[in-house]
User: Fold these one by one.
Assistant:
Number 1:
Amino acid sequence: MKMKSKKKVLLCITGSIAAYKSPEIIRILKSKGFEVKALMSKNACNFITPLTIQTLTGQDLPPYYDSNNTEYSMHHINLAKWADVILVAPATADIISKLTCGDAGNLITSTILASKAKTLIAPAMNKNMWDSQSVQGNLRVLNERDIKCIAPGIGSQACGDYGSGNMASPNSVINSIINDNSKEYSFFLNKKVLITAGPTQEKIDPVRYISNYSSGKMGYALAEVMYDYGAQVTVITGPSHERRQSGINYIDVVSAKEMHDITVEHSVDYDVFIAAAAVADYSPIDTYHKKIKKDGDFITLKLKQNIDILASITTKYPNRINVGFAAETNIIDDEIMAKLKKKKCDILIANEVGGGKGFNSNYNKATIYTKNEKTGIGFDSKINIAKKIISFISKYYSC
Ligand code: CTP
């Protein structure tokens, strides 16, 4: 990842339980060569101690306003000029509202108002607060003023609710700072991404199923890369043992039918859909509640074709960004172009499977097809293949 010239980060910590992630943000920033200073709101001091933050940053002054200290008289201006980047993490609904109004009533808001530094905010709040028209309206205003929002993740919340509003992970926040000028970041920031990943399992009886060798690695890698570029990512995943990244919403399914139904349910307001799952093409017509007993040399299973998830989504939402995969042992251009047309997607990524590539491997060899062009992206680790695909998508749709 290319580091920008920006080196001095002012971290503003406001009063949310997510403040427990702030020391980790400081630690990672410093390990990546950034100089860090911090400010804390009064409420943030109720969640973590100013001493922790001052010790980690190594700054001279404590990270909060001290009215008895004369060194504070021009502190907001000094900090405003010092910072290359201002990062508000966690950013509460309250600070977001104050920034929208141009409030200068405390050290954090007055510093941001006085600064020309690139400013990013990492919101953290309850899902209903996050979804509220007030917060979303404020974020739109801030976005127009080039104060970028690092999308929160979806998950269980401190209050017991489940939904959007959890502050992005420290790594994701830092990647946003590093990438904030990249085309990919500008493209994916706050986009809603839906990905199918992994295999599906089609039940025969309580002990048997039909499936394939897919591990889910490619879909999970794509999810992580887009999450790092600021997208809100939901992965609808068949059985997979891959590591899960906090902040990404994973929904577990087993069969093709379940994957289809959940994908359709979540497709209402997505911006980007990537069908990376290796969906079983057929499933047994009859499933048995008891184990099928051995009886004779042969057995016949009647299978029916599963519904095509990608085609269902592209038919319903032809004008959104729809990307498919084609897993092939032998890639033939005409066949891929026919699949692209049949599946009605703009981009189809053909990957070779078998021989250590594709299924259940950390490596992949892929070629990206659109109706007009074919771009080879070579043999590489799945995470690098994911980055190349994401970069291609952002370029393709920015043109
Ligand atoms: N796909 C899907 N639902 C299915 C089958 C496939 O969404 N029931 C999606 C896959 O996730 C992939 C694309 O369609 O993005 C192509 O999958 P692939 O297995 O290569 O093609 P099939 O349509 O299954 O055709 P075939 O196996 O005959 O090549």
Note: The pocket of cytidine-5'-triphosphate is lined by residues 196, 256, 275, 277, 279, 281, 306, 308-310, 324-327, 343 (CB under 6 Å).
Number 2:
Amino acid sequence: MNKREMVIVLDFGGQYNQLVARRVRECHVYCEIYSYRTDIAKIKAMAPKGIILTGGPNSCYEEGAPTYSKELFELGIPVLGLCYGAQLMQHILGGRVERADKREYGKTEVAVDTSSTLFAGVAPDTTCWMSHFDYISGLAEGFVSVARSADCPVAACENTARGLYGIQFHPEVLHTPEGTKMLYNFVRNVCGCAGDWKMDSFVEQSIRAIREKVGSGKVLCALSGGVDSSVAAVLLSKAVGDQLTCVFVDHGLLHKNEGDEVEAVFGPSGNYNLNFIRVNAQQRFYSKLAGVTEPERKRKIIGEEFIRVFEEEAKKIGAVDFLVQGTIYPDVVESGLGGESAVIKSHHNVGGLPDYVDFKEIIEPLRDLFKDEVRKAGLELGLPEYLVFRQPFPGPGLGIRIIGEVTEEKVRIVQDADYIYREEIARAGLDQDINQYFAALTNMRSVGVMGDERTYDYAVALRAVRTIDFMTAEAAEVPYEVLNRVMNRIINEVRGVNRVLYDLTSKPPGTIEFE
Ligand code: XMP
């Protein structure tokens, strides 16, 4: 195989480290993320075409702050520092970084020198996303400032002779509309990458890496039928074939009819060789969840029960060395497991196994990918489009779309309401347009009237959001007549419901799920 072009992202703990990698991949340049603690010898051995230093929450001049050896800037490899990375580069090379009088945060106008390679093709006055307390108050020798904002004399700087660049703002976020162009300029024009990397390289490379790791070991995959675990399962099946067994747990918290649909696609009558086993564990989950109202507790119970079911299946199959999970990057970062970044929340069911499980290791082949990248990988693997473009469905399923106690009756209500909602959204041609939509069951019952009778029934909440990366989202503008039709049908067709509400909340402050 030809030597692959690669750019390395050195992670200093910023929230956006994976976004940097993603933008680089969007420029068709392969990219890997490493901690700032990675040894320089290892970096040299990888011979990257460029290195990007991410942002981070620290002040580079404070004792104990993440840093790197000066040698990094003497390898003859172009380096781009972003935010903390830009400040650190200056700090190490003899520039000055100080605390600013006020924090610069949010969308900011910035004037850039378009004669700089970094800003070629960028408007001279452009918008960027700033988020910093410290600022570069003095440049190291050989550097010039190539961008400035009202509060920031060095919004970007460069030393072209040494191939060193710094950007104070965040080109990787969408709030910097021309940011991808700047990163493109760096990886393609400064580093000279040809840009011939595509998603099929990811698939190929993952298959190779999985084969190497698994050897002749046995692999057990948790297949839920969702996009992530389906892509992970098929990837594993291509890598290790018959060594793979896929267990599908029907925990009774799936969409209406979903268990049978998953079995039809992945089971023995489907197209894949997955050694598919379906476990009907509905009653087991309902009884564990009886009386439990606290959302975090429900997640834990469902997650733990899952593991138990797998343990039992693993025992039946015999020794199993690896467990596959379809964890993707947004799950990782929101669990606070994203490299060096700070914990945001802890509710996702990722991050390894409890002590009492005797699998050797966990494999998460999609851990670095965003949702749309997982879909691309799915298409590369030949999965059918209807499956690849399914909307996400959380591991704990309807268990976290039912407020309060989960009962079989409530599951039936939310399944039926959701089925109608999905049917009408598809009929209106909106199913590929809205990123995620579902019905949830509030724990609220209220008085209504049906026929001549008083009712005291549940309110169903409809949720529909637009989002790019599932880390922020806005409520979708579903046409009124569609909502009205859904409301009518739910009231008429779903026993136990007398009110339908539409959730307008964005994320933040809400989450996408309704729990
Ligand atoms: P939130 O509700 O945190 O959800 O805004 C963001 C995205 O993640 C999905 N989600 C989950 N996926 N296990 C999963 O596999 C989970 O525990 C989980 N919780 C949320 C959610 O559906 C949305 O797409």
Note: The two ends are 49 Å apart (CA to CA).
